[in-house]
Amino acid sequence: MTTIRGMLEKVQSVNVRDEAINIIRSTEKQNIDLNRKQLYQKSIDSEGNNLRLYSSALYALEKERRNPLPGFMRPDLYNTGAFQLKFFATVTSKDIVYGSSDVKSSALEAKYGGKIFGLTKENKAIYSLDVVYPLLQNVITQKTGLKFK
Fold first, then answer.
1. In terms of CB atoms within 10 Å, which of 8, 34, 55, 113 comes out highest?
2. Per the structure, how many domains does the chain have?
3. Which helix H or strand E contains 18, and what residues bound it?
4. Residue 129 covered by a domain
5. Which domain holds residue 105?
6. Residue 34 and residue 123 in contact, taking contact as beta carbons nearer than 8 Å
7. What stretch of H or E contains 38?
8. Is 25:18 a contact under the CB 8 Å cutoff?
9. Pick from 128, 124, 140, 118: which is nearest to 18 by CA?
10. Quick check: is 26 in a domain?
11. In angstroms, rounded to a whole number, what is the distance separating the alpha carbons of residues 81 and 90?
12. How many angstroms separate the CA atoms of 112 and 51, rounded?
């Protein structure tokens, strides 16, 4: 049986900040998948704003034929997939830095704005509550024996 002092020591031994950073690093794929989906399905940036419309209706027709989800004239920033394949979400001590190491990244940022990278408030909530939180609960349970309901 664990004493109150023993339980307190176990709880204090959990560095929630470090554990959260490790979890965020280990779930980079889920994080950037949400970024890809908001671009591909909704044509919105990290602030929830619509991306600038295509200037060519002919190109927009071709793109809509390939992906009707965002709607006519709405870019999804997906052509060959190379840009999205090189997405990253790097954890710093205070933030998550998003981007793509693809050669088209700078041109697309210049055209559509730097906010194409990152998650909307809605996707941040999904990522935090559905991905990070359960894993953090597991770590706390493993280290302390405390269970969450």
1. 34
2. 1
3. helix 16-26
4. yes
5. 4-144
6. yes
7. helix 28-42
8. no
9. 140
10. yes
11. 20
12. 6
Q: How many helices (H) and strands (E) does the chain have?
A: 8, 2
Residue 49, in any domain of the structure: yes
Q: What is the pLDDT of residue 12?
A: 86
Q: What is the pLDDT of residues 28-77, one digit of tens each?
A: 999 999 999 999 999 999 999 999 999 999 999 999 999 999 999 999 99
Residue type, 78: Y
> Beta-strand (E) ranges in 21-147?
87-91, 96-100
Q: In the structure encoding, which two tokens stand for residue 109, read together?
A: 């940022």
Question: Which pLDDT belongs to residue 133?
Answer: 97
pLDDT in tens, 118-139: 999 999 999 999 999 999 999 9
State the amino acid at position 63 in one-letter form: K
Nearest by Cα to 110 from 29, 46, 56, 52: 52
In a domain, 149, yes or no: no
Within 8 A by CB and 6+ apart from 14, the residues are: 139, 140, 143, 144
